[in-house]
Amino acid sequence: MKSKYDNEMELKFISKSNNEAFARVTVAAFVAQLDPTIEELSDIKTAVSEAVTNCIVHAYENTEGSIKIKATLLKNVVEIEISDNGRGIEDIELARKPLYTTKGNLERSGMGFTIMESFMDKVEIHSVVGIGTKIVMKKEIKKEENNEIIEEEKNALLN
Ligand SMILES: Nc1ncnc2c1ncn2[C@@H]1O[C@H](COP(=O)(O)OP(=O)(O)O)[C@@H](O)[C@H]1O
Ligand SMILES: [Mg+2]
Predict the structure, then answer these.
(1) CATH of the domain at 30
(2) Residue 129 has pLDDT above 60, yes or no
(3) Whether residue 54 has its Cβ less than 6 Å from ligand 1
């Protein structure tokens, strides 16, 4: 397999809520090779967590389905695709709006896409009703000359 990226990985798992933590930690561990700051790593984990949770609760509505994550690195940019074969989104622009939700009883309702957008540089939503949804997020990992991050602290974030 010849890749146009510096590195890439794929992950496929079923839509069980236990796998949300597994997914965000795995993506963080993959991104760690770009030497991100703790804040950058934490932003990426939060965005992945929101997207995966959406697949579990909205795409499959807590039934069992498959979730795929593809992550690539090119120079200092990480791109993460999170896709499902679930119910799809009827109105993407509406779904992006802060506080818009089709499930009002959940915690932090309607802020998932807003959080993804604020923590990542770019968030694309591709969706077809009855076919599924793909979220593509990009983030540049800033190069820092005097990165005084303590390795231990970073390792703590990988759990
Ligand atoms: N993967 C998905 N499949 C189907 N619908 C989705 C998906 N992700 C998001 N949505 C729709 O977009 C809305 C907004 O999502 P979000 O901003 O994360 O808020 P919340 O999850 O709290 O409802 C959801 O209520 C849902 O209708
Ligand atoms: Mg959400």
Answers:
(1) 3.30.565.10
(2) yes
(3) yes
Alpha-carbon distance of 107 to 136, in angstroms, equals 24
Q: How far does residue 10's CA lie from ligand 2's centre (Å)?
A: 22
Residue 1 counted as domain residue: no
pLDDT in tens, 67-85: 999 999 999 999 999 999 9
Taking the model in full, what pTM does it have? 0.91
Q: Would you tell me how many other CB atoms lie within 10 Å of the CB of residue 88?
A: 17
CA of 80 to the centre of ligand 1 (A): 18
Number of domains comprising the chain: 1
Residue 138 sits in which domain range?
7-157
Residue-wise pLDDT tens digits, 7-42: 999 999 999 999 999 999 999 999 999 999 999 999
Q: In what order do the strands lie in the sheet with 132-140?
A: 7-14, 66-74, 77-84, 132-140, 122-128
